[in-house]
Amino acid sequence: MQTTTQSLPPRIKRIWGYSALGSFLALLVITGLLWLAHTYWHWTVWLAVFGGILTVIEPTIEAALIPYRYRFSRYQITSLAVEIQSGWLFKKRVAIPIARVQNVTLNAGPLLQWQHLTQVTVATAATSHTIEGLELDVAAQLREQIMRLAQEARHDPA
Amino acid sequence: MTQPKHTHPLGYVQHTAKQLKDYWFLILLAVWQWDHLTTTWRVVAVLAMVTWLLIWPLLKWLTLTYQLTATAIVVNSGIFVRHHRHIPYSRLQTVQRKQWFYLRPFHLETLQIETASHQDGEPEVQLPAVPLTVADTLERYRRASYHPLSPDAPAPQPATTTPASNNGLGAVQQRYVTNRHTLLLFALTSTGIIPLLLVLLAIYGKLPHKWVDLLVADAQHFALPLLIGGAVALLIIAWLGALIWVLIRYYRFTLTRTPDQLQIAKGLFQRNTITAPLNRVQAVRTKQNILRQWLHLQTVQVLLASKAATDDDDHDLVILPAIAQQQLYSTLHPFIDWVPGVVPQLEHLIVPQHARWLLSRNAVLVVALPVVLLGWLVRPWGWLGLLLIPFAILQGQFAAHNTGGSLLTHQLLVLQTGHFWTRETFFVPREQIQSLQLNWSVWMVKRQLAHLTVNVRHGNHNQAIELRYISAKQAQNIYDWYQGQ
């Protein structure tokens, strides 16, 4: 791993934790509904059992993987390119030259807003790539940088 | 042209034909239900039909106007919601001229215009039945926008008459016309037979049950010969249909190059002329299925950022439908300068010997579940599905054998893949690569392997060119080359 790449803001781990909790609650509700369906409409009980197992396993795995996910999600923004890395078992590394960037979208759900973070999606003429969470000022700086470069090089690649 | 103009009245016929093509089933429905309707409902049905199929297109025709100004083409359309579309000439991607044979005596054609905007569905501007002079004028304005005159010069005033010699395109630098022999070989090896077979099967499904039952009753006497004969006849019909379809579509295929544009003309009943600026070409692809590999026949396409080629193979514009492999590079180079004039060496990004079996393994994994399910559910014939496994192993080896790539110059990357028994070679200039990605799993690290994905725009989408299981070091070299601007 190169030393120049940066980790995501540490607070993102808390958000991932809450999001695992969120999936737990959502799955719990679904399992409950399946149980009700079993009681009143005689749906097979296996659906509810399967839901219950999923309710335990999925959030556990999601929560357990947070340290790994954090450790192997990295990004780098230079004056020339944005680089994003993620994953350990299946590692991915992508380079997007700033000259190819068509637009930058900042997205923040309630959890990210509460932690003053934002998701950044960088779109080229063909693909789009997401950095899961950045500090607001870093994101704004990236956006400014891309806008400036876009104005400088106003020749159309597409 | 300073005033907004209507299209020729034949344009109304085109609108109506399209409406009939889209809603013919309404007429069938009405005829079918005719006996069950009271007189009032019959009147209502006929009125509704006339309105929707005849008057609505008339309103469409009446509300469609266009205007060529000095800087842009303006198109007004819409019956309830008015659209005013304003397209500067410098933003035009492709201009497509379609002329049905019945429009020829009137010197009319359908004009379609595309830009690079991310819109799906219909072409951005479609003008049915406009005089040929419109496209010629448009072409001249567009060329003027490429080479802006000095500010004190007067605005370009294109003549309204058609110079028959050069179509308003400028000096012709290169021209290529497909020869009949290679086009016939191309048509013979087309895989278009598969969709046609599906259509024939669908028609069979739609036949009244009485006929089918009758046929089956007859067939009981000499069932097997009839069945086999029927299947062979079906195949021959589908194959002939595909053959004729290709020959009609690519009839007198001509590729022309002017200093800054490529122009393709093709088709028998509908002559289709497509013009695309050379500097908007995203990548060049040569393609051959396994049959054409045996015949040493190649197809060349250009990837463009517009939908002008939706009828073509994979929605990319075919510029050379069929060309002998030996002549490919010497023929192509004069049309697109940055494609090499000789066969490129692709020895860098190859699948190492020790990794070749991985591609076969993955192909087998893909077919494993369907094979097991089929064998388990449809006994005993389902086990015939096991034949898919050697097929998958061979496909894996085909992919391994054909994967290749090289940095030809500091600005040009060449990549070759082998998916679904089709070998594709891509020529991608560096400035057209939108992003580049490396993937590897933990197990691949030990074997020093990686997947390389190069993303290029085509049509309104992404064309991901993926080389799987190549040497990690070579993949990293390409990544570094891409990053080092």
Task: Provide structural commentary.
Chain B: InterPro entries: UCP026631 (IPR014529), YdbS-like_PH (IPR005182). Chain B: Residues 61-141, 250-315, 410-482 form the YdbS-like PH domain. Chain B: It holds the Pfam family bPH_2. The complex is a heterodimer of chains A (158) and B (485). Chain A has 158 residues and is an alpha+beta fold. Chain A folds into two domains: 9-69; 73-152, Roll (PH-domain like), CATH 2.30.29. Chain A has helices at residues 11-41, 45-64, 66-72, 110-114, 136-152; strands spanning 6-7, 74-77, 81-86, 90-97, 101-107, 117-124, 128-135. Chain A has a four-stranded antiparallel beta sheet. In chain A, strand 3 and strand 4 form a beta hairpin. In chain A, 25% of the residues are buried. With 485 residues, chain B is of the alpha+beta class. In chain B, 39% of the residues lie in helices and 29% in strands. Chain B is built from 13 helices and 20 strands. Chain B has helices spanning 10-33, 39-63, 132-146, 180-188, 193-206, 209-219, 223-249, 290-295, 328-332, 356-377, 388-402, 442-446, 472-483; strands at 5-6, 65-68, 72-77, 83-88, 94-100, 108-114, 125-131, 174-177, 254-258, 261-266, 270-277, 281-289, 297-304, 317-324, 404-409, 412-419, 422-429, 433-441, 449-458, 461-471. Chain B is globular, with a radius of gyration of 27 Å. The chains are: A alpha+beta (158), B alpha+beta (485). The A-B interface holds A 80-81, 83, 88-97, 99-100, 124-127, 129, 156-158 and B 116, 280, 282, 305, 431-442, 455-458, 461-464, 479, 482-483, 485.
